[in-house]
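TA notes, week 10

Several of you asked for a full example with nothing omitted. So below is the full record: structure tokens for the whole chain, then the designed sequence directly under it. When grading your own attempts, check the secondary structure regions first.
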């Protein structure tokens, strides 16, 4: 398939999810297995910090909910950006202090808030 990212482009998060750039402003999280909403935000936060150099106070914006991966062809991925205006996404108001049950375009939170959804258990061989 043309247009797919290479394995070298991928970041594997500490929780085992893969994150790949879609283009210069959008990246997608491809879950390892379970697909809890918070896990997507955790992976997006880790990618924003490690690969994009975002600060803890920078905001992550959801630009596409669950759908097929455009970088790997996998069944499920969620897309994010640090610059919603670059992709025509209008940020939603953050009236809630907790994560929504779904993944709605425009949802956003700080990198630090996304990181709070990371649940690290014991490392398994």
């Amino acid at each position: 398939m043309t247009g797919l990212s290479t394995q070298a482009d991928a970041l594997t998060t500490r929780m085992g999810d893969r994150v790949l750039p879609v283009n210069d402003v959008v990246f997608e999280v491809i879950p390892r297995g379970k697909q809890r909403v918070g896990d997507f935000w955790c992976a997006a936060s880790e990618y924003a910090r490690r690969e994009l150099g975002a600060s803890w106070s920078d905001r992550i914006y959801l630009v596409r909910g669950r759908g097929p991966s455009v970088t790997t062809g996998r069944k499920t991925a969620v897309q994010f950006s640090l610059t919603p205006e670059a992709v025509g996404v209008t940020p939603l108001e953050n009236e809630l202090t907790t994560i929504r049950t779904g993944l709605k375009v425009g949802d956003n939170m700080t990198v630090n808030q996304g990181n709070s959804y990371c649940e690290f258990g014991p490392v398994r061989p």
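Strands lie at 11-12, 18-21, 26-30, 59-67, 77-81, 108-110. Use that as a sanity check on your answer.
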